[in-house]
Protein backbone atom coordinates (compact mmCIF):
# COMPACT_ATOMS: atom_id res chain seq x y z
CA UNK A 1 0.00 0.00 0.00
CA UNK A 2 2.96 2.29 0.74
CA UNK A 3 4.13 1.85 -2.86
CA UNK A 4 0.87 3.45 -4.04
CA UNK A 5 1.34 6.63 -2.00
CA UNK A 6 3.50 8.45 -4.55
CA UNK A 7 1.37 7.54 -7.64
CA UNK A 8 -1.80 8.51 -5.74
CA UNK A 9 -0.22 11.84 -4.77
CA UNK A 10 0.78 12.49 -8.40
CA UNK A 11 -2.71 11.57 -9.63
CA UNK A 12 -4.20 13.87 -6.99
CA UNK A 13 -2.12 16.79 -8.26
CA UNK A 14 -2.93 16.00 -11.91
CA UNK A 15 -6.67 15.60 -11.41
CA UNK A 16 -6.86 18.54 -9.02
CA UNK A 17 -4.84 20.76 -11.36
CA UNK A 18 -6.98 19.83 -14.36
CA UNK A 19 -10.16 20.39 -12.36
CA UNK A 20 -8.94 23.83 -11.34
CA UNK A 21 -8.14 24.73 -14.93
CA UNK A 22 -11.50 23.45 -16.19
CA UNK A 23 -13.57 25.00 -13.39
CA UNK A 24 -14.25 28.32 -15.19
CA UNK A 25 -15.87 26.51 -18.13
CA UNK A 26 -17.08 23.22 -16.59
CA UNK A 27 -18.26 24.44 -13.19
CA UNK A 28 -19.35 21.61 -10.90
CA UNK A 29 -18.47 19.08 -13.61
CA UNK A 30 -14.80 20.14 -13.62
CA UNK A 31 -13.50 17.21 -11.54
CA UNK A 32 -15.45 14.64 -13.57
CA UNK A 33 -14.10 16.25 -16.75
CA UNK A 34 -10.58 16.10 -15.29
CA UNK A 35 -11.00 12.35 -14.68
CA UNK A 36 -12.09 11.93 -18.30
CA UNK A 37 -8.99 13.81 -19.52
CA UNK A 38 -6.76 11.83 -17.15
CA UNK A 39 -8.15 8.56 -18.52
CA UNK A 40 -7.70 9.67 -22.12
CA UNK A 41 -4.11 10.63 -21.32
CA UNK A 42 -3.48 7.15 -19.94
CA UNK A 43 -4.94 5.56 -23.07
CA UNK A 44 -2.78 7.74 -25.32
CA UNK A 45 0.24 6.64 -23.30
CA UNK A 46 -0.69 2.99 -23.86
CA UNK A 47 -1.50 3.39 -27.56
CA UNK A 48 1.76 1.74 -28.74
CA UNK A 49 0.75 -1.45 -26.89
CA UNK A 50 -2.64 -1.44 -28.62
CA UNK A 51 -0.97 -0.99 -32.02
CA UNK A 52 1.36 -3.91 -31.26
CA UNK A 53 -1.66 -6.02 -30.28
CA UNK A 54 -3.41 -5.19 -33.57
CA UNK A 55 -0.29 -6.07 -35.56
CA UNK A 56 -0.05 -9.32 -33.66
CA UNK A 57 -3.65 -10.12 -34.56
CA UNK A 58 -2.90 -9.42 -38.21
CA UNK A 59 0.14 -11.72 -38.10
CA UNK A 60 -1.85 -14.47 -36.42
CA UNK A 61 -4.50 -14.25 -39.14
CA UNK A 62 -1.76 -14.64 -41.74
CA UNK A 63 -0.41 -17.68 -39.90
CA UNK A 64 -3.83 -19.27 -39.41
CA UNK A 65 -3.33 -22.03 -42.06
CA UNK A 66 -0.01 -23.05 -40.46
CA UNK A 67 -1.57 -22.98 -36.99
CA UNK A 68 -4.37 -25.27 -38.14
CA UNK A 69 -1.79 -27.70 -39.54
CA UNK A 70 -0.01 -27.73 -36.18
CA UNK A 71 -3.30 -28.33 -34.37
CA UNK A 72 -4.03 -31.35 -36.55
CA UNK A 73 -0.48 -32.66 -36.26
CA UNK A 74 -0.24 -32.37 -32.48
CA UNK A 75 -3.89 -32.78 -31.50
CA UNK A 76 -2.96 -35.45 -28.92
CA UNK A 77 0.01 -33.58 -27.48
CA UNK A 78 -1.08 -30.16 -26.12
CA UNK A 79 2.34 -29.38 -24.64
CA UNK A 80 4.11 -29.98 -27.93
CA UNK A 81 1.41 -27.98 -29.74
CA UNK A 82 1.99 -25.01 -27.42
CA UNK A 83 5.77 -25.24 -27.89
CA UNK A 84 5.52 -25.48 -31.67
CA UNK A 85 3.02 -22.60 -31.79
CA UNK A 86 5.33 -20.31 -29.81
CA UNK A 87 8.23 -21.33 -32.01
CA UNK A 88 6.20 -20.47 -35.11
CA UNK A 89 5.39 -17.04 -33.67
CA UNK A 90 9.07 -16.42 -32.90
CA UNK A 91 10.20 -17.57 -36.34
CA UNK A 92 7.69 -15.31 -38.07
CA UNK A 93 8.33 -12.36 -35.75
CA UNK A 94 4.72 -12.27 -34.60
CA UNK A 95 4.12 -9.95 -31.61
CA UNK A 96 2.54 -11.69 -28.63
CA UNK A 97 0.93 -8.59 -27.09
CA UNK A 98 -2.26 -10.44 -26.18
CA UNK A 99 -4.01 -8.80 -23.23
CA UNK A 100 -1.03 -6.58 -22.38
CA UNK A 101 -2.88 -3.28 -23.09
CA UNK A 102 -5.65 -4.24 -20.69
CA UNK A 103 -3.23 -5.45 -18.02
CA UNK A 104 -1.12 -2.29 -18.37
CA UNK A 105 -4.15 -0.23 -17.34
CA UNK A 106 -4.60 -1.97 -14.00
CA UNK A 107 -2.06 0.19 -12.13
CA UNK A 108 -3.75 3.40 -13.37
CA UNK A 109 -7.22 2.12 -12.45
CA UNK A 110 -5.91 1.08 -9.03
CA UNK A 111 -4.46 4.55 -8.47
CA UNK A 112 -7.79 6.19 -9.38
CA UNK A 113 -9.59 3.76 -7.07
CA UNK A 114 -7.22 4.52 -4.19
CA UNK A 115 -7.31 8.27 -4.84
CA UNK A 116 -11.06 8.44 -4.26
CA UNK A 117 -10.92 6.20 -1.18
CA UNK A 118 -8.14 8.03 0.67
CA UNK A 119 -9.22 10.59 3.24
CA UNK A 120 -5.75 12.12 3.12
CA UNK A 121 -3.13 12.41 0.39
CA UNK A 122 0.48 13.32 1.17
CA UNK A 123 -0.57 14.24 4.70
CA UNK A 124 -3.32 16.65 3.61
CA UNK A 125 -7.09 16.30 3.47
CA UNK A 126 -8.24 14.88 0.15
CA UNK A 127 -10.63 17.61 -0.99
CA UNK A 128 -11.45 15.66 -4.17
CA UNK A 129 -13.75 13.51 -2.03
CA UNK A 130 -16.06 16.51 -1.63
CA UNK A 131 -16.56 16.83 -5.40
CA UNK A 132 -19.56 15.40 -7.22
CA UNK A 133 -20.83 14.38 -10.63
CA UNK A 134 -24.27 15.94 -10.73
CA UNK A 135 -25.83 14.66 -7.47
CA UNK A 136 -23.43 11.79 -6.75
CA UNK A 137 -20.17 12.09 -4.74
CA UNK A 138 -17.19 10.97 -6.80
CA UNK A 139 -15.77 9.17 -3.77
CA UNK A 140 -18.89 7.11 -3.09
CA UNK A 141 -20.03 3.82 -4.65
CA UNK A 142 -23.55 2.80 -5.67
CA UNK A 143 -24.07 0.60 -2.64
CA UNK A 144 -23.29 3.56 -0.43
CA UNK A 145 -25.98 5.82 -1.98
CA UNK A 146 -28.76 3.24 -2.02
CA UNK A 147 -29.80 4.34 1.46
CA UNK A 148 -31.51 7.30 -0.18
CA UNK A 149 -33.52 5.01 -2.46
CA UNK A 150 -32.82 3.40 -5.80
CA UNK A 151 -34.39 6.36 -7.60
CA UNK A 152 -32.64 9.04 -5.55
CA UNK A 153 -30.69 11.64 -7.59
CA UNK A 154 -27.34 10.11 -6.61
CA UNK A 155 -28.50 6.59 -7.48
CA UNK A 156 -29.82 7.77 -10.85
CA UNK A 157 -26.32 9.04 -11.73
CA UNK A 158 -24.96 5.54 -11.10
CA UNK A 159 -27.80 3.93 -13.06
CA UNK A 160 -26.96 6.21 -15.98
CA UNK A 161 -23.31 5.11 -15.70
CA UNK A 162 -24.38 1.44 -15.69
CA UNK A 163 -26.55 1.98 -18.78
CA UNK A 164 -23.62 3.52 -20.66
CA UNK A 165 -21.30 0.71 -19.57
CA UNK A 166 -23.87 -1.84 -20.75
CA UNK A 167 -24.06 -0.13 -24.14
CA UNK A 168 -20.28 -0.17 -24.54
CA UNK A 169 -20.12 -3.80 -23.37
CA UNK A 170 -22.78 -4.79 -25.91
CA UNK A 171 -20.84 -3.13 -28.75
CA UNK A 172 -17.61 -4.79 -27.60
CA UNK A 173 -19.19 -8.25 -27.30
CA UNK A 174 -20.65 -7.98 -30.80
CA UNK A 175 -17.14 -7.59 -32.23
CA UNK A 176 -15.92 -10.95 -30.87
CA UNK A 177 -15.62 -13.35 -33.84
CA UNK A 178 -17.91 -16.36 -33.63
CA UNK A 179 -14.99 -18.73 -34.35
CA UNK A 180 -12.70 -17.21 -31.71
CA UNK A 181 -11.50 -19.57 -28.93
CA UNK A 182 -13.87 -19.33 -25.95
CA UNK A 183 -16.03 -16.87 -27.89
CA UNK A 184 -18.92 -17.24 -25.44
CA UNK A 185 -16.76 -16.28 -22.47
CA UNK A 186 -15.14 -13.39 -24.36
CA UNK A 187 -18.58 -11.99 -25.18
CA UNK A 188 -19.60 -12.04 -21.53
CA UNK A 189 -16.42 -10.51 -20.10
CA UNK A 190 -17.15 -6.89 -21.12
CA UNK A 191 -20.34 -6.93 -19.04
CA UNK A 192 -18.25 -7.50 -15.93
CA UNK A 193 -17.43 -3.77 -15.92
CA UNK A 194 -21.00 -3.06 -14.76
CA UNK A 195 -20.57 -5.28 -11.70
CA UNK A 196 -17.22 -3.68 -10.91
CA UNK A 197 -18.66 -0.16 -11.26
CA UNK A 198 -21.30 -0.91 -8.62
CA UNK A 199 -18.68 -1.47 -5.93
CA UNK A 200 -15.95 1.08 -6.73
CA UNK A 201 -16.09 4.87 -6.22
CA UNK A 202 -17.94 6.78 -8.93
CA UNK A 203 -14.63 8.28 -10.08
CA UNK A 204 -13.25 4.79 -10.78
CA UNK A 205 -16.50 3.86 -12.55
CA UNK A 206 -16.12 6.93 -14.74
CA UNK A 207 -12.57 5.83 -15.53
CA UNK A 208 -13.95 2.42 -16.57
CA UNK A 209 -16.55 4.00 -18.84
CA UNK A 210 -14.10 6.27 -20.65
CA UNK A 211 -11.49 3.53 -20.96
CA UNK A 212 -13.86 0.85 -22.28
CA UNK A 213 -15.41 3.30 -24.75
CA UNK A 214 -11.90 4.25 -25.91
CA UNK A 215 -11.07 0.56 -26.35
CA UNK A 216 -14.17 -0.04 -28.49
CA UNK A 217 -13.35 2.88 -30.79
CA UNK A 218 -9.63 2.08 -30.83
CA UNK A 219 -10.20 -1.54 -31.83
CA UNK A 220 -12.58 -0.53 -34.61
CA UNK A 221 -10.03 1.94 -36.03
CA UNK A 222 -7.00 -0.34 -35.65
CA UNK A 223 -8.91 -3.31 -37.10
CA UNK A 224 -9.77 -1.23 -40.16
CA UNK A 225 -6.27 0.21 -40.64
CA UNK A 226 -4.04 -2.65 -39.51
CA UNK A 227 -5.86 -5.96 -39.17
CA UNK A 228 -8.34 -5.82 -42.06
CA UNK A 229 -5.73 -5.32 -44.86
CA UNK A 230 -4.38 -8.79 -44.13
CA UNK A 231 -7.80 -10.40 -44.53
Task: Record the SSE blueprint.
Elements: H1 5-26, H2 30-45, H3 47-62, H4 64-73, H5 78-92, H6 100-115, E1 120-121, E2 124-125, E3 132-133, E4 136-137, H7 142-145, H8 153-174, H9 183-188, H10 192-199, H11 202-227
Antiparallel strand pairs: 1-2, 3-4
Helix pairs in contact: 1-2, 1-6, 2-11, 3-11, 4-5, 6-11, 8-10, 8-11, 10-11
Give a description of the structure:
With about 230 residues, this protein is mainly alpha-helical. It is built from 11 helices and 4 strands, in the order H-H-H-H-H-H-E-E-E-E-H-H-H-H-H. The strands form 2 sheets. Strands 1-2 form a two-stranded antiparallel ribbon. A two-stranded antiparallel sheet has the order 3-4. The model has no long low-confidence stretch (mean pLDDT about 85).
In short:
The chain is mostly helical.
Salient structural properties:
two-stranded antiparallel sheet; mainly alpha; 11 helices; 231 residues
**Uncertain spans:** none
Tell me the Rg in angstroms: 21 Å
**Overall number of strands:** 4
Spatially, the strands of the biggest sheet line up as 1-2
Helix content: 55-70%
Query: What's the average pLDDT?
Result: 85
Order of helices and strands: HHHHHHEEEEHHHHH
Class by alpha and beta content: mainly alpha
- How many helix segments? 11
Binned strand content: under 5%
| Terminal CA distance | 46 Å
What shape does the CA trace take? elongated
Largest sheet: 2 strands, antiparallel
Amino acid sequence: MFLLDTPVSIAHDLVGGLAGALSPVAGDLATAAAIVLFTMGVRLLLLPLSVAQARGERSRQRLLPKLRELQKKHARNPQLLQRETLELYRAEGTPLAGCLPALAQLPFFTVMYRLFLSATVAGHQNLLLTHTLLAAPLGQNWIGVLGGGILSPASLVFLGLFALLLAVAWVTSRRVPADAPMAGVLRLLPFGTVAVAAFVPLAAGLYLLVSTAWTAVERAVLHRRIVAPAA
